[in-house]
Amino acid sequence: MLALFYFWVSGKGEREMKYISKKVISRVSKNVPKFQRVLNTAFKRDINESDTVAIITDMLTQIFGYEKYVEVTSELAIRGTYCDLAVRANGKIVYLVECKAIGIALKDKHLKQAVDYGANKGIQWIILSNGLIWQVYRIRFEKPINYDLVFTLNFENMDLKSEKSIEMLSILCKEALLKNLRQDYFEKVQSVNRFIIGNLLLSDNIISLIRRELRKFAEGVRIDGDEIYHAIESDILKRDIVEGEEAESAKKRLKRFFKKTHKKKHKITQQEDSTEEKNISVAKPILSESD
């Protein structure tokens, strides 16, 4: 079994290598098929929530590597009640897990309950699961409280020959916390998605680039930037890419990015101008003496 390497783009624009060990891949590959059989039987028997929680606890330990009696607990009190499961690592709660019976479809009301638990306890990462489906969310502590779906695992049709499946499973493992894989993956999901890419296509830089290439392609034809913008917005992109809550969030993120980039370029230009003036002031008396 080969170890997998994943590349992420750091804030400096460099490619950083993240490593998933052979030990993790071996454990995941060995135990997932076993639990697929267990879950299949449990679904047919339509077991209750309590029994589903027991299976999820075993999955957290045998697949994802947490210690059963030390790092997985059902004794975390939140506002007078107890969440189904809490997962600890290095002395901190790293996940809250809201569990439903295996035969119950996961719904928004279940997610709201899990988000409320996380918000009240200040725990950013939550899992909503009925055993077969695992939805991993990251809470945004803002007003009002919001959240992002990071990824979903479906054990019913999971293909362990797929590097994508191994990657998703590995991100939930205890070992991934030490390498910060879940946060890296979240940042990747936030950046490489249809809303960011769609709105990036509508940015001034991209419109200018397309306009320049079109002028080469259709030489002598007058092409306006607004025409390109409206063609992309109306005829190429789907409506939900440029409208709605997620689209607005993407626009705001890009706006902050371009503003930051502009400030950085302006600062570099000022530094270059200052250096040039300094060089001139130093050279001037030397040139005067030579005259």
Structure characteristics:
291 residues, alpha+beta, tt1808, chain A, 2 domains, six-stranded mixed β-sheet, two-stranded antiparallel ribbon, 11 helices, elongated
Walk me through this protein's architecture.
- There is one protein chain.
- The chain is of the alpha+beta class.
- It has two domains: 4-179, tt1808, chain A; 195-290, no CATH class.
- The protein is built from eleven helices and ten strands.
- It has helices at residues 22-45, 49-62, 108-121, 163-171, 174-178, 181-191, 194-201, 204-217, 225-236, 239-242, 245-290, and strands at residues 4-9, 15-20, 72-73, 77-78, 81-82, 85-89, 92-99, 125-129, 133-140, 146-154.
- Helix 3 (108-121) links the parallel strand 7 (92-99) and strand 8.
